[in-house]
Specification:
The structure is a single chain. The two termini are 25 Å apart. Helix 2 crosses helix 9, helix 4 packs across helix 6 and helix 5 crosses helix 6. It contains 12 helices and no strands. With 220 residues, it is an all-alpha fold.
Length: 220
């Protein structure tokens, strides 16, 4: 409490808090969107390809954040270099590290890593919707996409909220992937805690750590 006022006035703290909030929110939206597509496709078809694709998120959730970050960094950096070389040769303009050098890489890592959590929540919600409702909608002339937007999504609101919440809370506290993929001079609350604790500045780290808890509890 003695250092609270001083730390709260630090612009770096508020930048890290805003970065954490924006990254977690973006990952939540993307993960829930992908989860809806996978879960709904799995409900509507028995295709072996769709069934196989819907099991991949379970594997990604088991992969450590460090391994996932390195696995993403290599292809993203290669793609960045290829695009940069193409733009230089055609227009004489350098695009830089558009993918691997921005927050895009962090959001992508969060989405892949926590897609399993959102997919489980969405599938649990879909399992409570009777297939008779699908049959009734089709009988009334609704297409598959119309059923999704007019019937299933309204019924899935609680499940979608739970899925977004799970991804949001996990993203707020994700450290290894963020440390490896963050751009220069880009901090989140998690990386700020790590940096301050590494410097033995425990009181200052405490505010950032508690903020992670408070911000994660707010949507709950």
């Amino acid at each position: 409490w003695r250092g609270f006022a001083e730390i709260a006035r630090d612009p770096a703290f508020w930048r890290a808090a805003l970065n954490s909030l924006l990254l977690a929110a973006a990952a939540s939206v993307l993960a829930v969107g992908f989860a809806v597509v996978l879960a709904y496709a799995r409900r509507q078809t028995r295709s072996a390809l769709i069934q196989g694709a819907s099991t991949l998120p379970a594997i990604s959730y088991a992969v450590p954040g460090t391994v996932l970050a390195i696995g993403l960094l290599i292809p993203l950096a290669g793609l960045d270099n290829s695009v940069d070389a193409l733009m230089r040769s055609l227009f004489g303009v350098s695009t830089g590290l558009v993918l691997s050098g921005t927050a895009f890489a962090i959001v992508l890592a969060y989405t892949i890593r926590f897609l399993a959590a959102s997919l489980g929540a969405v599938e649990a919600g879909l399992s409570k919707v009777s297939h008779n409702i699908d049959a009734a909608a089709r009988t009334l002339g609704a297409t598959i996409s119309e059923m999704l937007f007019k019937v299933h999504l309204p019924l899935l609101r609680p499940a979608l909220g739970a899925a977004a919440l799970l991804v949001f809370v996990d993203s707020m506290k994700e450290l290894p992937a963020t440390l490896l993929l963050r751009p220069f001079n880009f901090d989140t609350l998690a990386t700020q805690v790590f940096t301050l604790v590494s410097l033995y500045r425990y009181e200052e780290a405490g505010l950032s750590a508690l903020t992670i808890v408070v911000v994660s509890l707010a949507p709950v």
